[in-house]
Specification:
- The protein contains 16 helices and 16 strands.
- The protein has about 425 residues and is of the alpha/beta class.
- The chain folds into 3 domains: about 170 residues, Rossmann fold; about 150 residues, no CATH class; about 80 residues, Type Iii Antifreeze Protein Isoform Hplc 12, CATH 3.90.1210.
- Strands 3-4-2-1-5-6-7 form a 7-stranded parallel sheet, sandwiched between helices. Strands 9-10-8-11-12 form a 5-stranded mixed sheet. Strands 13-14 form a two-stranded antiparallel sheet.
- It is globular, with a radius of gyration of 22 Å.
- The model has no long low-confidence stretch (mean pLDDT about 95).
């Protein structure tokens, strides 16, 4: 992202702005809108949310007068608003994806099915698509990336989200010629596999969060999803099914993340992992065989080696997302995206005893949580990707708490677009 600020300034001086269409005006979306109003060379031309008042609120919190906010029910109405220098709000994301002036669409819904619909429509209509929705990416990201490449647009997961922040560190280290051994993130609370919207409701209200989102953090699903995205973008494998999750301080990471025969916890290198105790940071563990570089790293207080940690102590979530939109538009490149065929999968596990005939409820709910495993292991077991789980998926067999849910144990939602994309991905990519 070198010189991105200069490129945005050039756009601003030329009178051109990158027109962004945001879909999803929740906690992440609202912060994103305000941040863009601090930036040069780009504008939030439209905000879509099924709660129209929340879309309007995103603008008013950024200082926009209500007189300048226009409700658009069609793409032509949105286009007219842009021509007049107004800001459009809508309940229909198709209005955004079909609108000619929109250059980049940002999906901030966090819902796998909706994210698949938004991404597909954006690509079809020639828009770059930024996914602040890792759940969709780990389910059908490879096929969406392939479609975007064919259409000549950029498909990318967002900067600021932990996968994007990890990938930026990975690219930094890899570009310098270091051998990257581990890519990972911190977790700020121990895994509670029984967390659900009811058990976290009070905390969620205090933090002004959606209880389902907080539950997905606490039950570990979000971490598994994020590291699946990193795995698919780098080719790194999970350390094991569900990962290890050691407790450690930053300065301890180079010693912990060594092979077992070297006194560490790893069976192999080129893996993804998380650590309790270093949140909200992200990290990569690197090494070098050259003595001159090791001597300089010691001089620079990076430790004695042979492994070293590059650590970023923050990730700014949706505040950074506009940088991915700018990078897609200006440089035509993603922040992070799948390399090709999937490497890892986040698979669904029963959060409680499930009975035949029972409906599932998806990520952050009462019925399932997700754990990471290799794609090959998941395929052999016919394990169900958690991104395919929604309220229309019905159990056809009893599954005990803690057991992996397989395709054979459910009746899937055949009306689901993400399911159809997943099947296409399996046929074409893997």
């Amino acid at each position: 992202m070198l010189n991105l600020n200069s490129k945005l300034l050039e756009l601003e001086k030329s009178g051109k702005k990158i027109n962004i269409g945001l879909i999803g005006a929740g906690q992440m979306g609202i912060g994103l809108v305000s941040q863009v109003f601090c930036m040069k060379g780009m504008r939030i031309a439209a905000v879509c949310d099924i709660r129209l008042e929340e879309a309007k609120k995103a603008y008013t919190l950024a200082g926009v007068s209500t007189d300048d906010i226009v409700t658009a029910r069609t793409a032509s109405e949105l286009e007219d608003a842009v021509r007049r220098g107004k800001y459009a709000v809508t309940e229909d994301f198709g209005v955004v994806t079909k609108s000619i002036p929109i250059d980049v669409v940002i999906d901030a819904t966090g819902v796998p099915e909706v994210g698949a619909q938004i991404a597909l429509e954006s690509i079809y209509n020639g828009k770059h698509i930024v996914m602040l929705n890792v759940e969709t990416d780990v389910t059908v990201g490879p096929i969406l990336k392939k479609m975007a490449d064919s259409a000549g647009v950029v498909y990318t997961v967002s900067a600021g989200d932990e996968p994007g922040a990890i990938k930026e560190l990975y690219d930094f280290a890899d570009a310098m010629g270091f051998e990257v051994l581990v890519a990972g993130k911190g977790k700020n609370n121990p895994v509670d596999l029984e967390a659900n919207p009811d058990s976290v409701r009070d905390e969620a209200l205090k933090k002004k969060m959606n209880p389902k989102m907080l539950a997905s953090f606490k039950d570990g699903t979000k971490t598994m999803v994020e590291l699946t995205a990193v795995s698919n973008a780098t080719g790194f494998l999970p350390t094991k099914r569900g990962l290890i999750g050691p407790f450690a301080k930053v300065e301890e990471l180079p010693e912990i993340f060594r092979l077992k025969e070297e006194g560490g916890i790893l069976d192999s290198y080129r893996v993804v992992e998380y650590v309790n105790g270093v949140a909200p940071g992200v990290f990569v563990i690197v090494t070098t065989k050259l003595e001159a570089i090791r001597e300089e790293l010691a001089y620079l207080s990076m430790g004695p080696g042979p492994n070293y940690v590059f650590y970023r102590p923050y990730h700014l979530a949706s505040i950074e997302t506009p940088l991915s939109a700018a990078r897609a538009y200006i440089y035509k490149e993603p922040t992070i995206a799948p390399k090709g065929a999937p490497v890892s999968e986040t698979i669904a596990v029963a959060k409680k005893d499930l009975k035949a005939g029972e409906h599932l409820d998806g990520i952050g709910g009462f019925t399932v949580y997700g754990i990471i495993d290799t794609y090959e292991n998941a395929k052999k077991e016919r394990a169900l990707p958690i991104g395919l789980v929604n309220k229309n998926v019905v159990m056809t067999k009893d599954v005990k708490k803690g057991e992996v849910i397989t395709y054979d144990a459910v009746k899937l939602d055949e009306s689901s677009l993400i399911l159809q994309l997943r099947r296409l991905q399996e046929r074409l990519i893997g």
